[in-house]
Amino acid sequence: MQTQDARASVWSAAILCQPYSSLSYALPPYLPVHVWHPGMRVLVPMGQSNKLCCAVLERSVPALPTEKKLKSIFWPLEKEAVLSADYLEMLENVAARQLTSLGRVLASVLPASLRRVPDGWRDRKNKKIPFSSGRDNREFLSRLAEFWMQGELDVKSPGGKEPALTVSSDPPWPIRPQARVQWAVMDLLYAHGPRTASSIRAELGQGSTKALQALQDKELVCPCKPGDEPEGGSLEAGQDFCFSPEQKEALKHLSPRLRQGFGACLLHGITGSGKTLVYLDLARQSLEMGRSAILLAPEIAIARQLYQQARQYLPGAAIYLHHGSKGPSSKEKTFVELGQEKKPVLLIGTRSALFMPVQDTGLIVLDEEHDESFKQDQTLIYQAKEIAWYLASREEALLVLGSATPDVKTFHAAQAGHVSLVEMHSRIGKSTLPQVDFVDLKNDPPVFGAMAKTCAEALKETVKRGEQAVIMHNRRGYSPVLMCESCSETVKCANCQVGLTYHKKRNRLVCHYCGISVSFPPVCRHCRGSEFIPVGQGTEKVEEFLARHLPDTQVLRLDRDSTRSPGKAEKILQDFAQGQARILVGTQMLSKGHSFPEVTLAIVLDGDLGLGLPDYRSSERIFQLLVQLSGRSGRGEKPGRVFIQTRNPGHFCWQYIRDCDYKGFFQQEISRRQKFGYPPFVRLGLIRFSFPDTWEGKADFLAGLRKKAKQAAAVSKVTMLGPAPAVLSRLKNRERHQFLVKSSDWAGIKQAYLELRPLFERYRQVRASLDLDPVNM
Ligand code: ADP
Ligand code: ZN
């Protein structure tokens, strides 16, 4: 009888902080069994010192391990579970796919405030009773349990109201922090975006508190203002929507699919063909059927634009917006509200919105489905497209993947009939695709900054006519290389061995990989020289150059540096759309989905950038990037032009980009992949691992690993290439290596990884991860 009781009271809980495992706990004697529900957040003791951790009760009630004495759950964090069984099941599936634990997945998808350990109970008068007082005192706990059952006691997470801090967008010049810690704080904020004071303290230690205050006094750091939701978007208020013939045709195909259970569809429509309205109308129909819809965009700025458009198109609908740079309390609010929502909702957001607890989803749309930002390759590695696919099939929903330049794998799936294909061939209204020309830099060398004469003249003309131009250069900062005048050595990051980029506005040399910065001018590590020549140019320099040579022309810049604080990107885009500047210079951020009717000229300064990368998708990437960028020109009534500067005028991609010929490009690319054995004809996985570069045991470890890898490849029937140094072979004082695994199925790749994992885990110096279908190789 006793065992029976004990077995019934053993629960499994997924821990939301390191070690992220799932452990079994007994239910405590002081609370009745019926208070516990799967999906409920609870506090559990962990480790020697019995520190309290946040955990989530799992659905499974495992059998009691006989010989082990179990610890008990300490206390529930809520009276009703915030996580539904369906939701937990989805996360369990994600965890299984990525060979990781439910705890780790939860830790990366739950809003931070839902993972925090509160500091005590609150009684009815909101007076705090700290947990420490009587954690092992049965009687005390039993009394509290009585209050709990009577609803007189609560636990609340400490207020998540702490403001996020950010670097000022227009700091007093020149920037002058004094202490080293102050620079460290600045680097952290520059590299990772806004943070709260306590998270800065957690990262940099107590000393950062004073530094932070000093920086705030000097107005170098300030609290983030929540970004104002930009008004407008491209659907004008009160506009009567009259679908174009192609939009009607697309909807005729897609609408019935909303009633036919799971299905996936590729909406291949050229830039400016009006895909957005098709998505919004499908969402309307889904809501009318009583089912929720999720619309995903690759960038926050685009998600917000979509949100505005949706609010105009669907007044009265319950529409939510979720993206990574919303504040912690706002994320928690959206999360909890969505979980409790009784009506169908439209959720718009970036990839992480897939992890919001939306109920009964009838439609999932991924706009710009080819975009690499749908893949997350840090912390929790996942491809949003795959999760969307799984979710749609589970919910019997329609999945729509939209793009002008689909992922080669998606188009291949469409040709094979796994995904149905709907096409849109023409732009809305009078606008036509722009004329694209390639400028051979060997014949027409850059004279005007990085610009050939042809481009410079076209730019001047455009500005003179009162029209707008976008200039893309996929390098941020002022100059990517700084060379010592006397010995020609370049300046490198001491942690990563990659070149440092000079940022003139910050007046620092910055490592784009680890985020640390050093003062400018540096001292040459080889000859102690202090004269340096900046070589090459980044967006900052292009902007400066244009401002100098076209003095009466307003220039704006869009890149990661100019858009640090929330809402800044939208502000720049909105200012440009309203004609407050003639020229917008930027990185690839420019190419994504924006609609500027007055832009008639697009210039790409370095069309070749990226072609030489050791990645089987480099042609696909360049094709997508340049066609998308071209798509920003001539979207209004006036015809557009595009100039792409190159030193490889014969590259096979160019002709397809010029003709905007996706299918031509696809045919070439797919036959090349078949010939050389690349996806979609094989599955690829990347096993990454790293260790400190000073580790003495590394030679032994690598030798053991090589041997094990041979066995692993044979057992799992895969091809394993490596170990080879990663593209970034050293990062933050760690050596980085990788295996490229080719297989006919995912299972083989996973098995190969599982074969090696025990060896990785044997050394605490080693960190390893598996990336299925890697985007960055
Ligand atoms: P895509 O996403 O396919 O590149 P968009 O959806 O941004 O294209 O549409 C391009 C432009 O056409 C936008 O400015 C949009 O407001 C406009 N547009 C779309 N559909 C219609 C329509 N039916 N009538 C008038 N304008 C439209
Ligand atoms: Zn570095």
UniProtKB/TrEMBL annotation:
Q: Specify the protein name.
A: Replication restart protein PriA
Asked if Transmembrane is a keyword of the record, the answer is no
The Helicase C-terminal domain extends over 519-673
Taxonomically, the superkingdom here is: Bacteria
- What does the cofactor field's note say? Binds 2 zinc ions per subunit.
Task of the protein: Initiates the restart of stalled replication forks, which reloads the replicative helicase on sites other than the origin of replication. Recognizes and binds to abandoned replication forks and remodels them to uncover a helicase loading site. Promotes assembly of the primosome at these replication forks.
Q: Which CDD domains match?
A: SF2_C_priA (cd18804)
Q: Where does Zn(2+) 1 bind?
A: C484, C487, C524, C527
Q: Which Gene3D superfamilies match?
A: P-loop containing nucleotide triphosphate hydrolases (3.40.50.300), PriA, 3(prime) DNA-binding domain (3.40.1440.60)
HAMAP family listed in its UniProt record:
PriA
Please provide the record's keywords in A-Z order: ATP-binding, DNA replication, DNA-binding, Helicase, Hydrolase, Isomerase, Metal-binding, Nucleotide-binding, Primosome, Zinc
Q: Name one GO molecular function term.
A: zinc ion binding
Q: Which GO terms describe its cellular component?
A: primosome complex
Give the quaternary structure: Component of the replication restart primosome.
> EC number(s) on record?
5.6.2.4
- Name the cofactor(s) required for activity, per the record: Zn(2+)
According to the entry, every stretch annotated as the Helicase ATP-binding domain falls at: 256-424
Quickly give the catalysed reaction.
Couples ATP hydrolysis with the unwinding of duplex DNA by translocating in the 3'-5' direction; ATP + H2O = ADP + phosphate + H(+)
Pfam families this protein is in?
DEAD (PF00270), Helicase_C (PF00271), PriA_3primeBD (PF17764), PriA_C (PF18074), Zn_ribbon_PriA (PF18319)
